[in-house]
Specification:
about 230 residues, alpha/beta, 8-stranded parallel β-barrel, binds 2-phosphoglycolic acid
Amino acid sequence: MTPLIVANWKMNGTIASTQALLQTLPAHDNVVICPPFPLISLVAKLGFITGAQDCHAEECGAYTGEVSVELLRDVGCSYVILGHSERRQYYHETNKCVADKAQTAQKAGLKTIICIGETQEEYEAGQTLDVIKDQLINSLPTDFKEENTVIAYEPVWAIGSGKVPSEQDISSVHTFISETLRKAFEKNLRILYGGSVKAHNAGAIMRLPHVDGVLVGGASLIADEFKGIICS
Ligand code: PGA
């Protein structure tokens, strides 16, 4: 399977920086760029597969400041990241909330990238697999399809910290996720790893068993780093 490489720009980027960065990158059919909402149509016009970083669970209505899945499709999105740990932490998104958003997004034809991962505290308490299993089972919408659902395993303590779990730990968590999906849903989903992925470690991570790509934050904003990851 060709690895999927997803760039999560978070709240970074301007029109000028988007043009400058993407002009140096050839568009690839396994690379997805997830910029802030106002930059989505520009990224799509530049020829890249585009994703949003969130969406609303309702199809439309009186939700000031929110963006609907219909509009996301309209401006060129084909993916949406849901349940990122920053959304779970700062906006108190629960598994149920993530599942509801995923349901609406999938109904509109968007592919969902559902993020799960343990905090530092949970990791130190040896609760990683319990936390992962709970988030995984409860963040998925009913009737999800293999072709429109991607899981991203992102240990919260690895995000933006420069710390990365050992290859053995990544491998065993991904194997656990894959087995859990098979047992609970009889499904085989693409599983990405995220958290301090850089050009120097991306290749080794993507070659691990059950790792089908990467979700990249900081390094996706730096042309040489991101090119290095794509070429890994
Ligand atoms: P990072 O972020 O690559 O900067 O660690 C990853 C993410 O938050 O998706």
